[in-house]
Amino acid sequence: MPLGEPHRGECAAGAGWLPEGDLLRERCNFGYARGRCDRFPAGAEADAVRFTAWEERDGVLELEYILERDYAPLRNGQLRYRSADGRADGPGAPDIVLRQAEAFAGSHLRRKGHTAWTTI
To answer: Where in the sequence is the domain holding 78, given as residue range(s)?
Structure first.
């Protein structure tokens, strides 16, 4: 799972729509839904986003994201996830990437046993 564990929620491509079942598991949670989901935006820059956690200190988790298209890196950037408010930020990162980074950071920290970091 790219975000560390399965997630569900409102589809960013369709206002108020909540994907279910195979669509949620096999496309929304793994990426690469272009051409496999009717709601995937035709002009979307990337097909998927991947995250790596680098360093955790003083309530801040440093992350890197990589946007992918056709299974190849497209661009990357650095993010910071703050435990105090459960939010991620980073220069030039699209809002959807920041929300996914928050989900990834919460999953990552829970797997590492940081029970205080469950604000996602």
So the answer is: 45-111
